[in-house]
Design brief:
The protein is mainly alpha-helical. The chain has 11 helices and no strands. It has helices spanning 2-12, 34-55, 59-74, 77-90, 95-103, 109-126, 132-155, 164-169, 174-195, 197-222, 227-254.
C-alpha cells in the first residue's frame, strides 16, 4: 500500500517522495491514492486563503495563486491531457486519427485557445471565492475530481491497450481501487455538504453530471477512455464544480 501511494505521488505530482521501483506490484493500488494529491492541493489552497486574509491581499492575487497551485503540485500533467483532447476533438477526424492526434506531443492552436479560456475563466471564478468556508468547499473538489477520475480509470472501457493509464490500470486490483476512490470522493463530498449544504450539494451534483458526460463523449468519440481523457475530465470537473459552488453561493445571497 505504501509503495502504491508513493507511485501515485511520483506519477501524478511533483512532490518529492522516496522513489520506488517501477513494477506492477508497486502500482496495484496507486489510483486509489490519487485523491491524496488532491488533498495536498486543497490543503495548500486553504493555507493560501489564510495567508491572503492575513496580508489583506486582493481577490485577484488570491485567484492567481489558486490557479497556480495545482500546476505547481502536479506539473501540469492534467492540463496536458486537456490540451491533447481538445486538439483531437477539434480535428473532427475518425476515431483512430483522434487517438493518433492525442498521442502527438505537439500542441495545436485549438488547444492553446481553449487552455487560455480555461485559465481565464478559472481565475475569474476563484476571484469570487471570498470566504474561508467557501474556499474549503472548493478545496474538497480537488479530492472529489481525483476520486472520480480514478474510479473512471478502473471501471470505464479503455480506448487503447497501451499507454500510461494502462500501466496503472492493468496491474490494479480494480474492486479495491474503485472502493478506495469512492470512499475518498464520498468523504470529501460529505465534508463539503456539511460545511455549506447548498454549495456542497451543487459541487456533488455537478461532479456526477460531468462524469456522466465524460463517459458518454469518451465512448462516442474515442471508443473508451485514455490517460489524456482522464486528465481532460479532471480539469473539466474541477472548473464546473467551482462554477457550481460560486453560482449557488450567489443564488443563496440573493435569497
Amino acid at each position: 500500500m505504501l509503495r502504491s501511494m508513493l507511485s501515485a505521488f511520483l506519477m501524478y505530482s511533483r512532490i518529492p517522495v522516496p522513489k520506488v521501483e517501477w513494477k506492477e506490484e508497486n502500482r496495484r493500488y496507486a489510483l486509489g491514492f490519487f485523491p491524496l494529491v488532491g488533498a495536498v492541493i486543497g490543503g495548500l489552497l486553504i493555507l493560501w486563503r489564510l495567508i491572503c486574509n492575513e496580508l489583506a491581499a486582493g481577490q485577484f492575487i488570491f485567484a492567481a495563486g489558486a490557479v497556480f497551485l495545482p500546476v505547481l503540485v502536479t506539473g501540469g500533467i492534467h492540463l496536458d491531457g486537456f490540451c491533447d483532447v481538445n486538439d483531437a476533438r477539434a480535428s473532427y477526424a475518425d476515431r483512430d486519427k483522434r487517438l493518433e492526434i492525442m498521442s502527438d506531443p505537439h500542441i495545436g492552436s485549438f488547444a492553446v485557445i481553449k487552455l487560455c479560456l480555461y485559465l481565464i475563466i478559472q481565475t475569474a471564478l476563484f476571484s469570487a471565492v471570498n470566504s474561508l468556508r467557501l474556499t474549503i468547499v472548493a478545496a474538497c473538489g480537488y479530492v472529489v475530481s481525483r476520486g472520480l477520475s480514478g474510479l473512471s480509470a478502473v471501471t470505464f472501457r479503455s480506448a487503447k491497450s497501451t499507454g500510461t493509464l494502462q500501466s496503472f490500470v492493468r496491474p490494479a486490483h480494480r474492486n479495491i481501487t474503485a472502493a478506495i476512490c469512492v470512499i475518498w470522493a464520498a468523504v470529501s463530498a460529505g465534508a463539503a455538504v456539511v460545511i455549506l449544504p447548498v454549495q456542497g450539494a451543487a459541487l456533488v451534483i455537478s461532479a456526477i453530471l460531468v462524469m456522466a458526460y465524460h463517459r458518454f463523449t469518451s465512448y462516442r468519440d474515442f471508443g473508451g477512455i485514455t490517460g489524456d481523457l482522464c486528465g481532460w475530465f479532471l480539469q473539466m470537473c474541477e472548473i464546473v464544480m467551482l462554477a457550481a459552488v460560486i453560482f449557488s453561493e450567489r443564488i443563496m445571497a440573493l435569497w
